[in-house]
Amino acid sequence: MDTxxxxxRQIIMDxxxxxxxxxxxxxxxxxxxxxxxxxxxDDITIQSLVREDIVEDVRHDGRGCSICCSSASVxxxxxxxxTEHEAMTLTENYLNMxxxxxxxxxxxxxxxxxxQGVTKFPARMKCATIAWQAFGATLNKKAGETDEQ
Length: 149
Fold this sequence. Notes:
By secondary structure, the protein is α+β, with helices and mostly antiparallel strands. The protein has 4 helices and 4 strands; from the N terminus they run αβββαααβ. A 4-stranded mixed beta sheet has the order 3-2-1-4. A hairpin with a 2-residue loop joins strand 2 (about 45-50) and strand 3 (about 55-65).
């Protein structure tokens, strides 16, 4: 195993075993999106709080594989403090990376680059993208809105 691959594996396992920003809040200012993948059992809920165009908080909770749960933790850590536009651009860039489309490596994906290898495993793409899709959906909703998918 090469050094970079080992580093990426360590990042994924660290966020899986020690998730950041885990746990939902009962606050009407947050937008909530729940997505469940019936084919593999991944079940994730993402909450975001955006005020004055700044992502102030991102929360997550759910069950799933290490890729699903750790990517939610990485997502939350990465998005806090970004403008809404920056957050949407990063989300689109990440989704492009996972699905094998051209993406901007210079953009601040930070620990999210650890999931780049998922493109080799099509069955795991949904695991790596479910939290990011939910987060993107929260940016397109108003505070207090929730829904399930």
